[in-house]
Amino acid sequence: MPNENCSIFINYYKPKHMKILILCTGNSCRSQMAEGFLKSFDRGLKVFSAGTYPASLANVNAIAVMKEVGIDISQNKPKSVDLFLADPFDYVITVCDDARESCPYFSGKVHHRLHMGFEDPAKAIGTEEEILRVYRKIRDQIREEFLKFYKTL
After folding, report:
1. How far is Cα 39 from Cα 76, in angstroms, rounded to an integer?
2. Catalytic residue among 10, 103, 122, 153
3. Between these two residues, 25 and 17, which has the higher pLDDT value?
């Protein structure tokens, strides 16, 4: 992750008030992690996440592995994409694994649509440690890809 001084320098040149929506099916795990990372990279970004079939709560394993890297998403609540249809966004990014899931589509006003597919760690099986290992792997992939994305803004 960029150090604080680097982030301040980068943020000076970033467009202010850019709005980004991250979509996934349940909005309980991957999209919540991506939202957490983008907000940690730049507090000036307006970042939201939503799902086509939102879960009732954020995934406890996603919360745990994000806490390991100093990002608290424990207060995040899954939301329906319907809440955002009237809002314009600079970017809408889907994070589903398109080989296994049908990605949600956002019909609102969008300047750029992107897809970054990640395996669903909620489908991991095994011991608790094996499952958490999968969550950490996906978390790290999300951090890497969203940092690359952030640097292009």
Report:
1. 12
2. 103
3. 25
Query: Active site includes 29?
Result: no
Q: Which of 96, 116, 132, 138 is catalytic?
A: 96
Q: How many independent structural domains does the chain possess? A: 1
The CATH number of whichever domain residue 42 belongs to comes to 3.40.50.2300
pLDDT digit string, tens, across residues 80-101:
999 998 899 999 999 987 544 5
Concerning whether 24 is annotated as a catalytic residue, the answer is yes
Domain carrying residue 27: 4-152
